[in-house]
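Appendix C: a fully annotated inverse folding record. The material below is reproduced so that readers can follow the format used throughout the book. The structure is listed first as tokens, followed by the designed sequence.
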């Protein structure tokens, strides 16, 4: 019988049963081997063998119980760490508001927890009414598009490296970040221009009207890392962020791209 078949047939057995089977087979082989070669070995009585086998089996059971206990403690510690981190993540408030004068969304992230949060990133934005629209965080429009100068290509903006706790006693002149902000801009799929509802008239009696954003149809995704190193995601729809969900930490390449405004 091929070795792979033997492995498959024994795969259903628990590990302690496999070890016991190996010991029994080894002992039986040694016994009959000594008889075949005429060796005189004092194998002891059946009671001695039973006692030795029972002690070996008890040792295997104790080892298995110890391993299970250690695994359970590790799982409980990890669950406790994640729960404590989620409490801190819930103290990070994420909200979004629209700008009535341009197709942009202002996103604000405030840390109300006792510890700093790290690497605050706006990683995704979508406008359900215009699923083909591209987004970025480097545009700001303050007037009709026909009066604007050159606009730079759309990129995915700034990563805030650290966001300190905010409290009522904060010094407003402090130089470190207490609030992370992003201005998300939506543009046409193939042109770096905003989505218009109506263009300006030639006599300028009617200015350009941008397509207005219904915040219930805008979805913003923000990632940040709590002080214990766990990465969290908050999805904002309707202007209010939902409960944070744990995600995988960023790779070194993602962190580098975020610093230069090229995160995907």
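Designed amino acids, in order:
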């Amino acid at each position: 019988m091929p070795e792979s078949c033997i492995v498959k047939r024994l795969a259903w057995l628990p590990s302690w049963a496999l070890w016991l089977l190996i010991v029994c087979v080894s002992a039986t082989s040694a016994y009959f081997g000594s008889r075949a070669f005429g060796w005189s070995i004092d194998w002891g009585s059946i009671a001695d063998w039973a006692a030795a086998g029972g002690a070996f089996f008890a040792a295997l059971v104790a080892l298995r119980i110890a391993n299970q206990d250690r695994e359970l403690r590790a799982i409980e510690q990890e669950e406790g760490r994640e729960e404590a981190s989620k409490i801190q993540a819930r103290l990070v408030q994420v909200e979004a508001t629209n700008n009535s004068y341009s197709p942009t969304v202002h996103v604000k992230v405030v840390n109300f927890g006792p510890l700093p949060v790290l690497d605050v990133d706006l990683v995704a934005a979508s406008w359900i009414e215009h699923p083909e629209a591209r987004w970025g965080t480097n545009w700001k429009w303050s007037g009709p598009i026909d009066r604007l100068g050159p606009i730079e290509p759309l990129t995915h903006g700034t990563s805030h490296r650290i966001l300190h706790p905010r409290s009522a006693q904060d010094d407003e002149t402090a130089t470190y970040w207490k609030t992370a902000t992003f201005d998300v801009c939506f543009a046409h799929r193939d042109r770096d221009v905003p989505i218009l509802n109506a263009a300006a008239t030639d006599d300028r009696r009617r200015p350009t009207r941008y397509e207005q954003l219904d915040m219930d149809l805008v979805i913003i995704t923000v990632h940040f890392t709590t002080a214990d190193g766990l990465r969290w995601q908050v999805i904002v729809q309707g202007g209010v962020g939902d409960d944070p969900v744990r995600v995988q930490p960023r790779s070194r390449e993602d962190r580098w791209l975020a610093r230069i405004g090229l995160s995907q």
